[in-house]
Design brief:
By secondary structure, the protein is an alpha/beta fold. The protein contains nine helices and twelve strands. It is elongated. This is Isochorismatase domain-containing protein 1.
Length: 340
């Protein structure tokens, strides 16, 4: 169990604009000419603070010199401005920040597009683009347009175990079942080499993680008072894991810490899978309404067996037999069937 320092990573387009939480990786389609669209900088706060370079990091000012008029569009707004001749991508980003910085949600994913006269519509900004003549560009938020498919691979997945602590034992509905399934998940993660991050809510008063869950080899065990698991230390740990795309989330309570963690992660561009048979609350009403709300938000609500089998994906997977031994006996239904 170690804590790793955060490292900035550039994941490619579209990306999260937030300076401290840019560990979301993603990809986007290319242009008709097979050119990759230009990439947004991961740390927008640093981009805003950086002094403007003549070519914005792409190219020096062109032989023509002087300034070029550019129309910067975002949402329903269109604001004319100028940039130096030969300005590149970084300088365009700085200009967008200076014009619209107070309106940008820094945790959403964006792409910069250029209006192409030949197509009479916007196209993704070509890689290496520099401003040489009057043009129109826009910043487009993509998060709400991305369909969540729910595919899981071990290399891009992290498990979050939330507040499975001793003092919750008498209060949480079906807590024994939740512990049993939680242990299955932690064991499966260990077999598949998937990092596990564990939090404990105010352990001084609520105790440590229950002994039934073996925390051997987990990446991080962190005390907290915030309900959400998305803490600076957790973000630093995620930044140190290459290619994180999905979080498998389980623990207690469904309508408090689980819900707030899931919503915060989705807001930062992470695909979230909540394990319904490994999360619960003090009341079934709170539990079931939270799961329904989260599912309506686009979060994937699933089961422990579905998660583990999706991660191995093939009977010929070298770890399939070990995973099969974990799920040989069906997981307890923990009151879920009575509420279907």
């Amino acid at each position: 169990m170690v804590r790793r320092r955060s490292r900035s990573r550039d994941w490619g387009p579209p990306v999260c604009l937030g300076g401290g939480s840019g560990w979301r990786s993603s990809s986007s389609g290319g242009l008709g000419r097979r050119e990759a669209p230009e990439r947004l900088p991961l740390n927008m706060a640093a981009a805003a603070a950086a002094p403007p370079a003549g070519g914005g990091g792409c190219c020096p000012a062109g032989p023509g010199g002087g300034s070029v008029p550019v129309l910067f569009c975002f949402s329903v707004f269109a604001r004319p401005s100028t940039v130096p001749h030969g300005a590149g991508y970084e300088l365009l980003i700085q200009k967008f920040l200076s014009l619209y910085g107070d309106q940008l949600d820094m945790h959403r994913k964006f792409v910069v597009q250029l209006f192409a006269e030949e197509w009479s519509q916007y196209i993704d900004l070509p890689k290496g683009f520099v401003v040489s003549e009057r043009c129109k560009v826009r910043l487009v938020p993509l998060q709400i347009q991305i369909t969540t498919l729910g595919n899981l691979t071990p290399s891009s997945t992290v498990f979050f175990c939330c507040d499975m602590q001793e003092r919750f034992r008498p209060a949480i509905k079906y807590f024994g079942d939740i512990i049993s399934v939680g242990q299955r998940l932690v064991q499966g993660a260990r077999i598949l080499g998937i990092p596990v991050i564990v939090t404990e809510q105010y352990p001084k008063g609520l105790g440590s993680t229950v002994q039934e869950i073996d925390l051997t080899g987990v990446k991080l065990v962190l005390p907290k008072t915030k309900f959400s698991m998305v803490l600076p230390e957790v973000e630093a740990a995620l930044a140190d894991i290459p290619g994180v795309r999905s979080v498998v989330l389980f623990g207690v309570e469904t309508h408090v810490c689980i819900q707030q963690t899931a919503l915060e992660l989705v807001g930062r561009g992470v695909e979230v899978h909540i394990v319904a048979d490994a999360t619960s609350s003090r009341s079934m009403m709170d539990r079931m309404f939270a799961l329904e709300r989260l599912a309506r938000t686009g979060i994937i609500v699933t089961t422990s067996e579905a998660i583990l089998l999706q991660l191995v994906a093939d009977k010929d997977h070298p770890k399939f037999k070990e995973i099969q031994n974990i799920i040989k006996a069906s997981a307890p239904e923990s009151g879920l069937l009575s509420k279907v």
